[in-house]
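Support request from a user on the community tier.

User writes: "When I paste my C-alpha cells into the form, the page sometimes reloads and wipes my input. The last time it worked, I copied everything first. Here is what I submitted, just in case something in the input itself triggers the reload:"
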C-alpha cells in the first residue's frame, strides 16, 4: 500500500488527514521494512482519536471541508465480513461492527479496537463517538471491560428515554 500512495503513506496521511484535523502530536510504528504500520499502533491523544472518529461520523466532512469521500466512509462502515465466532458482529474496512443493547433498544456501532481494550466507537444512529483508553494489554478482559464501560456508565448517562 505504501508504494501505491504518492510520496508514501506517512506524508500522505499527514497532508491529507492529520493537518486538516489539526492533529500534530502522533507517532507511527513502523514495520521492519520501515513502512508505517496500518494494522495498529498509531499513537495519538484521545482527543485526536475523537476527531478521527467524528470525521467518519460526519461522513468525511470536517469544519465544512470534505476530507474523506462520503462513498469511502459508507463502504468503510458497511458489513463486509460476518465474524463467525461472534453473533451479529461484522468487519468492514478496518472498522468492526457490533450492537449494544441497552434498556431493550439496540444501538449499532462501528469501532476500531486496539490492544488492552482501547477503542473508539461511532454510534450509527445516535450523535456520539466514544473514546476508551485502557492499559489491559494482552489481557483477555480488555475489550469486555470496554463494553461494560459503555453499557454500565456511558449509555445510562446519555440516553434519556
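"...and here is what came back when it finally went through:"
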Amino acid at each position: 500500500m505504501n508504494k501505491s500512495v504518492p510520496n508514501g503513506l506517512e506524508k500522505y496521511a499527514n497532508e491529507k488527514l492529520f493537518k486538516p484535523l489539526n492533529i500534530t502530536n502522533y507517532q507511527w510504528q513502523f514495520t521492519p521494512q520501515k513502512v508505517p504500520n496500518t494494522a495498529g499502533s498509531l499513537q495519538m491523544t484521545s482527543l485526536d482519536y475523537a476527531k478521527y472518529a467524528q470525521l467518519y461520523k460526519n461522513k468525511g466532512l470536517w469544519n465544512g471541508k470534505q476530507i474523506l469521500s462520503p462513498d469511502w466512509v459508507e463502504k468503510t462502515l458497511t458489513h463486509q465480513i460476518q465474524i463467525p465466532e461472534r453473533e451479529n458482529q461484522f468487519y468492514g474496512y478496518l472498522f468492526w461492527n457490533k450492537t449494544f443493547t441497552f434498556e431493550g433498544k439496540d444501538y449499532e456501532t462501528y469501532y476500531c479496537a486496539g490492544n488492552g481494550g482501547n477503542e473508539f466507537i461511532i454510534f450509527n444512529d445516535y450523535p456520539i463517538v466514544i473514546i476508551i483508553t485502557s492499559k489491559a494489554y494482552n489481557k483477555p478482559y480488555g475489550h469486555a471491560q470496554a463494553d461494560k464501560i459503555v453499557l454500565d456508565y456511558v449509555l445510562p448517562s446519555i440516553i434519556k428515554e
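Agent notes: The reload is a front-end session timeout and is unrelated to the input. The chain has four helices and ten strands. Residues 41 and 146 are 18 Å apart (CA to CA). Escalated to web team.
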